[in-house]
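Title: Prediction job returns without error message
Component: structure pipeline
Severity: low
Priority: P3
Assignee: unassigned

Description:
Job completed but the reporter wants confirmation the result is attached to the right record. Sequence as submitted:
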Amino acid sequence: MKKKLFMKGNVIMTTPAQGYYGVAIVLDDAIKRELSPGRFSYPLNHIAITPLIFTKPISMDNICAQELKPLVFTRYFDKQGETIFWRNEICVHIYTNRNEANLQVIGNIDPSQVCDMPLLWEPQDDQFHFCGDVTGKLGREAYIQYCRINNIDLKR
């Protein structure tokens, strides 16, 4: 069976933890990148993880368009349980356009309303760009932030 592909403007319902649902947006058309001379990647998209987290499956009716912005996530770097430094990251990552995790696309929007920053292919100081297929834990940063704000122990 052929896998579904993500397309520009897709609104994806994520499943960052059991019983929790988030939202991610495909920001651009998929392109192939040359990894080394003559060796190309699968087609890649920029995907923005939003801060939205729900405790039930969602549809476009549950989403306020003004809340569809990339999450700014505070990532802590610990050593032996003590924070040695932290930094804020804009959660726009690079993934293949293959929906290997079989996540549900719940709608389509104009991605320029979500993110107006340049979509670069090289890592920046305030962003981690992960390449590869999306996983079932897409949007984990939004779930972690939700737990931090609501004093909830993280579920694995």
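Comment from assignee: result matches the submitted record. The chain has one domain: 10-149.
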